[in-house]
Write a structure and sequence with these properties.
about 190 residues, 10 strands, alpha/beta, two-stranded antiparallel ribbon, binds guanosine-5'-monophosphate
């Protein structure tokens, strides 16, 4: 997606350990115009798939997922990382190891929001080793829901996430694919996904 790639080139910052900082438009401050365009693109790809729910994980997945859900005309459900006092119903839970925070956390979705009748589109901001996505897939499996595919805003293709997901039979659609973050430079695989 051209405008996303251009924005990463303009405002993305490479941190030493294979991490791309995009806090001025995705992960802290959010650009709603870009997020809406991203949501429209994901919705376009999955338009004919009869998606019933868009599922993401808090926090940075919520913005692109919300626009995708709006465009598809379905609800957005985001997995929560900490249990709220108001979550007193039965929960689906999975363990997720965070690539950036280097801690394992329990993510959960209330059983009432994901069922065997759902055809799910997963959305996340980054794909690195695929652990966040794997956790979301586990939640869907527990609910008996079908996972139609996953939309990723920024894929770091030098990590194992895409392979892990494709080996599970999941369709992966990434809007920017990064080949390398070496020497402080962002190198892309292809400019138009
Ligand atoms: P994975 O679970 O695929 O290893 O990592 C994906 C999650 O880690 C994303 O939800 C994202 O929050 C975070 N993440 C992974 N790599 C990066 C990165 O290079 N930059 C930022 N800002 N977040 C990342």
């Amino acid at each position: 997606m051209k405008e996303l790639v251009a924005r990463i080139k303009e405002d993305g910052r490479v941190l030493g350990d294979g991490v791309l900082k995009v806090d001025s438009f995705v992960t802290h401050q959010v650009d709603p115009v870009l997020m809406e365009a991203i949501g429209k693109r994901f919705a376009q790809v999955f338009q004919a798939a009869n998606i019933t729910k868009v599922v993401t994980i808090e926090a940075s997945g919520i913005a692109p997922a919300l626009y995708t859900a709006q465009e598809l005309g379905v609800p957005l459900v985001f997995a929560r990382k900490s249990k709220s006092l108001t979550m007193n119903e039965e929960l689906l839970t999975a363990q997720v190891y965070s690539f950036t925070k280097q801690v394992t956390s329990t993510v959960s979705i209330s059983k009432k929001f994901l069922t065997e009748n759902d055809n799910v589109l997963l959305i996340d901001d980054f794909l690195a080793n695929g652990q966040a996505a794997k956790g979301l897939i586990e939640l869907c499996q527990q609910a008996g829901a079908h996972v139609e595919g996953i939309g990723i805003v920024i894929e770091k293709s030098f990590q194992d996430g895409r392979e892990l997901l494709e080996d599970m039979g999941i369709k992966v659609v990434s809007l920017a694919r990064i080949a390398s973050l070496k020497a402080g430079e962002v190198e892309f695989i292809e400019e138009d996904a």
